[in-house]
C-alpha cells in the first residue's frame, strides 16, 4: 500500500473517531452536509435520565393513603359495618383510633409497592 494512501486512511479514521464532520477529498476538506443538518436541528425533548420517584411527587403519599383506605374499607366493609352497629357509643375518639389503626397498615408497604399500587389503580 502506498504511504500517502495509508496516511489518508489514518486521517479518515481519526476524523471518524473525533466525530469530525469534515472529510478530505482530493486533498481538500469538505463539510458533510447531512452531518451539519443533523447538528443544526433544534434539540428534541429530552427525558430525565433519573425521573422523580412517584412517592416524591406532590400529593403521592396522600394518594396512596386514599387508595389504601378505599381498598381496606371495601375489603372489610361488612366487618366495619358490624363494628359500627355493635359499638353504639362510637364517639370521635374511638373513630379516630379505628382510623389510625387501619392506617397503620400502610407502613408495611415498601416505596416500590406503593408506587406499583398507585400506577395500577389508574
How do you describe this structure in short?
This protein is mostly helical. The protein has 6 helices and 2 strands; from the N terminus they run H-E-E-H-H-H-H-H.
Describe the structure.
Residues 64-110 form the Ribosome-assembly protein 3 C-terminal domain. It comes from Funneliformis geosporum. Keywords: Nucleus, Ribonucleoprotein, Ribosome biogenesis. Required for efficient biogenesis of the 60S ribosomal subunit. Belongs to the RSA3 family. With 122 residues, the protein is mostly helical. It folds into two domains: 3-40, no CATH class; 54-120, no CATH class. Helices cover 59% and strands 7% of the residues. It has helices at residues 3-18, 33-40, 60-75, 77-86, 92-103, 111-120; strands at residues 22-25, 28-31. Strands 1-2 form a two-stranded antiparallel sheet. β1 and β2 form a beta hairpin. The longest helix is centred in the first third of the chain and has 16 residues, at 3-18.
Amino acid at each position: 500500500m502506498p504511504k500517502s494512501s495509508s496516511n489518508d486512511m489514518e486521517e479518515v479514521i481519526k476524523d471518524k473517531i473525533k466525530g469530525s464532520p469534515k472529510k478530505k477529498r482530493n486533498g481538500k476538506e469538505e463539510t458533510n452536509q447531512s452531518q451539519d443538518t443533523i447538528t443544526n436541528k433544534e434539540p428534541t425533548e429530552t427525558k430525565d435520565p433519573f425521573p422523580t420517584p412517584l412517592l416524591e411527587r406532590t400529593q403521592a403519599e396522600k394518594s396512596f393513603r386514599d387508595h389504601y383506605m378505599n381498598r381496606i374499607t371495601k375489603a372489610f366493609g361488612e366487618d366495619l359495618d358490624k363494628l359500627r352497629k355493635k359499638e353504639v357509643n362510637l364517639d370521635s375518639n374511638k373513630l379516630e383510633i379505628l382510623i389510625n389503626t387501619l392506617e397503620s397498615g400502610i407502613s408495611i408497604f415498601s416505596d416500590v409497592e406503593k408506587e406499583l399500587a398507585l400506577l395500577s389503580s389508574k
